[in-house]
């Protein structure tokens, strides 16, 4: 070993970002293993790597004892005092045992161990770096694809894009630049594995954060996202500042902000609706662009409702293959049943009858209460006496 070795370690640290100390520790461990293997030495071996000169020294560590039982592990007190009069029983003394041909043997034996440690260190660095990007968005370059995955180059690692995470309206070609959502990062036995997605709903959140400064700053909040990747999405937004229009801010001047997101998603339609604390209003907004006449909630299940729309807008409210209603249900987390006004006429008549009956009952109770309030104490006593006599006569019969 020489200064060339030190220069190589410095270059490795600069190129791979691996600390020189990590490599030196791996080197020393490998040299101990090499010495034991080739020279049959016991476990009392230490290797010292001189970081200034690049030289390696091998030491046999022996314990000072009164009587030597194993010359490889122990040294007598008499011999130790000849080296240094200060030695006592139990002290450890290092004797240099570096063989002349040890450099060649060490280089051959330690090569694989050093490479393994370097790979492990690289994997740890890459995992720590990309785990910080989990749940975030990155830009990559499409490298290649097979039956299972599309491989996206993110710089230091190749991420995998599975079929279910791909957008059905996209065709990926090598060297295409795409933005991907890092869904998860795993540290496997083969090294770090990064899984990315183009269909994840949170990809929309990150794209809005990039295109809309108010969303990034928190002035406009994305409450929920419902997405059918490559076709259509609905995004519910609200403003934390009363002076800011949440929907208009996300759309941008002449629709520039939302159009940039649509272009990135290859023409995926985008509905931006305003979130409201009142679930009825929120559901009506979610069914945009159709009009909503009424929202009737199920008394037994508050998460289920019937939405009444004009007859001529029924197909618009349901959407192509039920898409509009399905996305609205996901966005609001409600089960939505859409009915036209004509079918709801009978329902409204029954409700009106129930209301009328309830009003009649309320009036009767109210009138009876007024009559009873007008009676004097003597009249109450007379009514009570007549009721008792009536009861007795009924029993006699």
- Lateral arrangement of strands in the main beta sheet: 5-6-7-9-8
Q: Beta-strand percentage? A: 25-35%
Sheet/helix structural class: alpha/beta
- The total of helices stands at 13
Terminus-to-terminus distance: 126 Å
What composes the largest sheet? 5 strands, mixed, barrel
The mean pLDDT is 81
- State Rg: 41 Å
CATH superfamily of the largest domain: NusA, N-terminal domain
Number of domains: 4
CATH architectural category of the largest domain? 2-Layer Sandwich
Low-confidence stretches: 389-397
SSE order, one letter for each helix or strand: HHEEEHEHEEEEEHHEEHHEHEEHHEHH
Domain S1 motif: 133-199
Organism: Candidatus Enterococcus wittei
Family: Belongs to the NusA family.
Keywords: Cytoplasm, RNA-binding, Transcription, Transcription antitermination, Transcription regulation, Transcription termination
What is the topological layout?
Layout: H1 3-16, H2 20-39, E1 45-49, E2 56-65, E3 74-76, H3 77-83, E4 92-96, H4 102-131, E5 137-145, E6 149-153, E7 158-162, E8 177-188, E9 191-197, H5 201-211, H6 213-217, E10 220-228, E11 232-239, H7 246-251, H8 256-264, E12 269-274, H9 279-286, E13 294-297, E14 304-309, H10 314-318, H11 323-332, E15 335-340, H12 341-374, H13 377-396
Helix pairs in contact: 2-4, 5-8, 9-11
Organism: Candidatus Enterococcus wittei
Keywords: Cytoplasm, RNA-binding, Transcription, Transcription antitermination, Transcription regulation, Transcription termination
Main location: cytoplasm
